[in-house]
Design a protein that fits this description.
The complex is a heterodimer of chains A (225) and B (281).
Chain A lengths: L31 E4 L2 E4 H14 L3 E5 L1 H4 L6 H13 L5 E2 L23 H8 L3 E5 L3 H14 L3 E5 L10 E3 L4 H16 L16 H7 L11
Parallel strand pairs in A: 3-4, 3-5, 5-6, 6-7
Antiparallel strand pairs in A: 1-2, 1-7
Helix pairs in contact in A: 1-6, 3-6
Chain B lengths: L17 H9 L28 H12 L6 E5 L4 H5 L6 E3 L5 H15 L6 E7 H6 L2 H9 L5 E6 L34 H8 L3 E5 L4 H17 L3 E6 L13 H11 L4 E4 L1 H7 L5
Parallel strand pairs in B: 1-2, 1-3, 3-4, 4-6, 5-6
Antiparallel strand pairs in B: 5-7
Helix pairs in contact in B: 2-8, 4-6
The chains are: A alpha/beta (225), B alpha/beta (281).
């Protein structure tokens, strides 16, 4: 951290938190990771990510367009690695970010997360730990800052490029191998005796919107209280 | 290439929102659809935040229906009402800064031609009268004079509707709008005449009274721009808020304006006529 004391902790940090980069947080090199603003080894970073995913409330994976749309070689394999990861996190949900179009007048937070207002999905689903993967960096940056500003969610980024200072834990240059390394770290923690928070909830949990859709039902988001 | 972007990764379809599942399975991409097919497929634009009764939203819905190859189209817009819905459509949308949409369109068109030499890509600027006739005026004209091959569609509501009702160059003489209380002191800019002078290959003026005509006009404009030269469509899309038109009377207003001063007009260069060749568009 170059002697800087700024820590990238779960929020809410309030409106317009400073960009971590402006507070002295630097991006990791290949083989390194970033944990709450501090450079760590890749293995240490994976272990922190694994622990947070197994112990915090309502773990959720947010796959972005670079995972969701199989538009080039390698995407299907990366997508498969994300599903393998999800299957190792009891009670996990997968809420997609299929693209970056604004969604107005109303978003359905059980169906989608949108970079224009990611906090709505976090708040509605009471998500306290999440993984972003396959989101283009310029949208991930703004999304992460909004989440840190207004929620208490622990953000993890598996970035295909240089990583993200504004997430609590970040791994750069993450391809399917890194995703599988995180899966292996989770398995290792479980073998070491860590009981996941949702150990009694097997596999991936569908949101109410996804459940309704899978049954061919018409889904209406709950009215705002 | 373009249609491959619509393949959901294996195992992820069940997590996708309904709208996206519908777009993949029942969307317009890669299909030759007609106006009469509306209602049988998932449209590019479903929800939008525009005002009740908005003629512009109606026009945009039909214009998007008319795109000959939506999977190979990029739309540009700028500040104003139109971008509120265009940016939510399932089609790449580039938000130009006020004034530079047509300059950006030039670059995008040329870049796409370099990147995809074997695949025609359509570029369509769809912006308001303020964006094109006032603030973006110089780049509109430069694009035309330089014979840049893209389509410009003016959503002409004759006012700055998005910011409370200031007069624009396309407001008609004498009109009093909410933020221009003394009345417009000069004539509506003759963009059609300027387009003719600049040698625009296809020029059309219309109102949203005839859906078939809108679809036909936009399709012709896009196809001619793809092969021949710049095209320009000027559409009267009233602002029922700033002109205090009750939503249920928007079409009645459009018919009246069409009859009085905004009749359908189509001007085509000889080259464009030869390109269309009398074929059905």
């Amino acid at each position: 951290m170059n002697g800087n004391e700024y820590r990238v902790k779960p929020g809410p940090e309030g409106l317009l938190p400073p960009a971590a980069a402006c507070c002295g947080v630097i991006l990791p090199e290949k083989g390194q990771g970033l944990v709450e603003g501090a450079l760590k080894s890749e293995n240490d970073t994976l272990r922190v990510m694994a622990r947070e995913l197994l112990t915090r409330q309502n773990p959720t994976i947010f796959p972005g367009p670079l995972v969701l749309w199989a538009w080039r070689e390698g995407v299907a394999d990366k997508a498969a690695s994300v599903l393998e990861l999800a299957n190792e996190i009891p009670g996990v949900r997968i809420i997609p970010m299929p693209d970056y179009r604004p969604i107005y007048p109303k978003i359905d937070p059980e169906a989608v997360i949108n970079p224009c207002h990611p906090n709505l999905t976090i708040w509605h689903n009471k998500i306290e730990v999440c993984v972003f993967i396959g989101v283009h960096c310029h949208f991930a940056n703004i999304t992460l800052k909004m989440i840190r500003a207004g929620t208490n969610c622990y953000t993890i980024t598996l970035c295909h490029a240089a990583g993200h200072e504004d997430s609590m834990a970040s791994l750069p240059f993450a391809d399917a191998n890194q995703v599988r390394a995180l899966t292996a770290a989770i398995r290792k923690l479980k073998r070491e005796g860590l009981r996941p928070r949702y150990a009694d909830t097997p596999g991936i949990q569908l949101t109410a919107a996804q459940e309704a859709l899978s049954q061919g039902l018409v889904w209406q988001p709950a009215p705002v209280a | 290439m373009a249609l491959r972007t619509l393949q959901v990764s294996p195992g992820f379809m069940r997590f996708m929102p309904k709208e996206y599942q519908d777009l993949v399975e029942k969307g317009p991409f890669g299909r030759k659809l007609k106006l009469s097919d509306l209602g049988t497929y998932k449209e590019l634009l479903e929800e939008h935040p525009m005002c009740e009764g908005c003629a512009m939203a109606f026009f945009i819905r039909l214009a998007l229906t008319a795109l000959p190859a939506p999977e190979h189209t990029v739309i540009l817009g700028t500040a104003g009402c139109g971008r509120l819905s265009l940016s939510q459509a399932a089609i790449p949308f580039v938000y130009g800064n006020y004034c530079d949409t047509n300059g950006v369109a030039t670059g995008i068109k040329r870049g796409l031609a370099l990147r995809f030499p074997d695949q025609p890509k359509d570029v369509v600027v769809m912006a308001g009268d303020g964006g094109l006739a006032d603030i973006g005026f110089s780049q509109v004209l430069h694009g035309w004079f330089r014979q840049e091959k893209f389509t410009t569609v003016m959503l002409d509501n004759e006012v700055y509707g998005n910011t409370g009702g200031q007069e624009s160059g396309m407001t008609k003489r004498g009109e009093v709008v909410k933020m221009a209380p003394v009345g417009k002191k000069f004539d509506k800019i003759d963009m059609i005449g300027l387009a003719k002078t600049a040698g625009v290959a296809y020029i059309a003026r219309l109102t949203p009274t005839n859906p078939s005509r809108i679809v036909s006009t936009i399709r012709k404009a896009v196809l001619i721009a793809r092969e021949v030269g710049p095209t320009y469509v000027q559409a009267y899309t009233s602002c029922n808020i700033e002109y205090a038109i009750p939503p249920q009377q928007v079409m009645e207003d459009a018919r009246r304006v069409e009859k009085e001063r905004y009749g359908f007009l189509e001007v085509m260069s000889e080259e464009a006529k030869a390109f269309l060749g009398g074929g059905e568009v």
